[in-house]
Amino acid sequence: MADEVCGWRGNRCAPCTALQRLCFKRQSLCGRHGGSKIAICDTVNKKAHYIGKKAGIGGLNKPIGVAVDGEGNNIYVTDSSQDRVIVYNQNGDYKYTLNKKGQFKQPTGIAINESLGRIYVVDTHKHNVTAMNKNGDMLFEFGKRGSNEGEFNYPNSIYVDRHGLVYVSDTLNFRVQIFDPDGKFIRQIGSIGDTPGRLARPKGVAVDSDGNTYIVDAAFNNVQIFDKEGTLLLFFSSMGIGPGKLWLPSGISIDEKDTIYIADQLNRRIAIFQYLRYFPH
Fold first, then answer.
1. Whole-model pTM above 0.90?
2. What own/partner pairs with CB < 8 Å and gap ≥ 24 does 5-11 have?
C-alpha cells in the first residue's frame, strides 16, 4: 500500500514540504524546507538529482512550493525567504524569476490552471492568494486575514482541479476553502476538532479522478478523504516510521492513475498509496 520514493537507503532526502508529480517521466519533485534545492526523484530507477543552488542567479534559499506546467517544460518554485517564484526548465536549468517588487511577503503554495494560463500563489504572510499570468503579471488577488468566508489565517497549500476550482489549505482556520477560478468563495471543508472529519493542521490538498478531496493533516499525521459534498469518507495512516505511517506529513499529489504521493517530512521520504475504487454489485 505504501512505499518510499525519496527515501531509499543511501539517498535520503531532507524534509520536504510540497510535492508535484511529473507523470510523464515517472518522477516526483519535492520542495525542501530549510534547504536550498528541489529533489527530482526517479521512482523507477530509485535515483534522485537536484535543481537549484544556494547562491547566484536562480539560486534557492527556502524553497517551499513547486508546480509544473501542462507540457512539463517549466518548473515553478516558490522561495519563501527570497519572496519570489523561480522558473526552471525540465532539466533544472534556471530560466527566469517571477517577482514584482513587494508582490510577495512569504510565497508558499503554488498551482497552475493551464486552460486559463493562470498561476496561483499562496502568500502565507499576506494571508491571500495572487493570480498571475505566466509572464508574472498580477491579474488579481483574493483573501485577507480573518475567519469569515474567503478570508485566511496563515494559508499554506493550494490545488487546482480539472474544473478549475481552487482549493486552499487555510491552516489556522482549520479548513480547506474552495473558490471558483476568479477567487469567488464556493464552500469549505472541515472545522477545528480532534474527531474524524475535523482538522487540526491542514496542509497539502489534492483531488482524485472521482472528485474526492484529500487533506493532509500534519497534527494528526494522517490523510482525510471527503466526497464532493464535503462528507468524510475515510481517513488513513497515523504517526510512525513503518510502512504506511506518516510523521509530520505535508504535501500531496495524485496522478492520473489515482496513485497518491505524500511528502512525509520527518521520515524523510515520499510515501505512496493507491486509491482503490469501490464498484458495488
1. no
2. 5/41, 5/43, 5/46, 5/261, 5/269, 5/270, 5/272, 6/30, 6/39, 6/41, 6/48, 6/268, 6/269, 6/270, 7/264, 7/267, 7/268, 7/269, 7/270, 8/46, 11/46, 11/47, 11/48
Q: pLDDT tens digits for 162-217?
A: 999 999 999 999 999 999 999 999 999 999 999 999 999 999 999 999 999 999 99
DSSP 15: P
- For 74, the grid coordinates are 517549466
Instruction: Please spell the DSSP secondary structure of 188-250, one letter per residue.
Output: EE--B-SSTT-BSSEEEEEE-TT--EEEEETTTTEEEEE-TTS-EEEEE--B-SSTT-BSSEE
Distance, first Cα to last Cα, the chain? 24
Rounded Cα distance, 108 and 271, in Å:
22
